[in-house]
Amino acid sequence: MTYRLGVIGGGRMGSALVAGLLAEKIYTPAEIIISHPRPERRQFWADTYGVGVSGDNPTAAAASQVVLVAVKPQQFAQVGLDLQGSNPGAVYISVLAGTTLATLETAVPGRPWVRAMPNTPVQVRSGMTALAWGGQVSEPQQQWAVQLFKAVGQVVCVPETYLNGVTALAGSGPGYVALLVEALIDGGVLVGLPRALATQLALQTILGTAQLLQQQSLSPAELKAQVMSPGGTTSAGLLCLERQGVRGALMQAVQSAYQRAQTLG
């Protein structure tokens, strides 16, 4: 049987992408096969989404038109060996952080490789994905890869040299935002709000602020100026954040994640 999409690895990112693609009806369950070494994960996928499953990477890849490699970077050495005899006509898409196109093309030569860096909001079709092309990827294959990830959010095409930075900002960014939301919720509880109410307020404030910045093409500085009034509450809160070094801490978080991404390839 031929599948349109084969997924090697059913971890968080592979799971998020498949869930989004199925929800957007880019693929039907019958067009997807997922390879995973653990029987309980294969059973989960079969029961939850009705997709094909396999415990054998070469089998899944050989039967697929698009092969999405979504394993941990340290697992790729074995996966690369598994893929060497696979379908040469397929497009290969890697979501491995820090693993370069040169590494991918050396491990599995003669294949068109795409590096993709999506983030976890692809699961709710609000992701951000950056794509970089290997030398053997044709223009129609590029267009298909863009269409694939547009189904689950926004897409940018960038030089490969940008991808570690993309990983540090957008790939790891949901973790940073989750910490900020958690802190805002705890702050609301600290000043006497019920936790459920504080959660609702924090989530909608983050979401609404992002939409306001996007839809009105405001810079963060312009939005801050709109919210701040002389001697007001926002001014007092921002002064505290600046004194505590929150801006610098976030910048250093991105820098640290970038440095870590550089060690993974």
How would you summarize the topology of this molecule?
Layout: E1 3-8, H1 12-23, E2 32-35, H2 39-49, E3 52-54, H3 57-62, E4 64-69, H4 76-83, E5 91-94, H5 101-107, E6 113-117, E7 127-133, H6 139-150, E8 153-157, H7 163-171, H8 173-190, H9 195-215, H10 220-227, H11 233-243, H12 246-262
Parallel strand pairs: 1-2, 1-4, 2-3, 4-5, 5-6, 7-8
Antiparallel strand pairs: 6-7
Helix pairs in contact: 7-12, 8-9
Query: What would you call the shape?
Result: elongated
Q: How many strands?
A: 8
CATH H level, superfamily name of the largest domain: NAD(P)-binding Rossmann-like Domain
**Termini separation (Å)?**
34 Å
What is the succession of H and E elements? EHEHEHEHEHEEHEHHHHHH
**Major sheet: arrangement of strands:** 3-2-1-4-5-6-7-8
- Relative helix content: 40-55%
* CATH-defined fold name of the largest domain: Rossmann fold
What is the makeup of the main sheet? Answer: 8 strands, mixed
Q: What portion of residues belong to β-strands?
A: 15-25%
- In round numbers, the mean pLDDT is 92
Number of H- or I-type helical stretches: 12
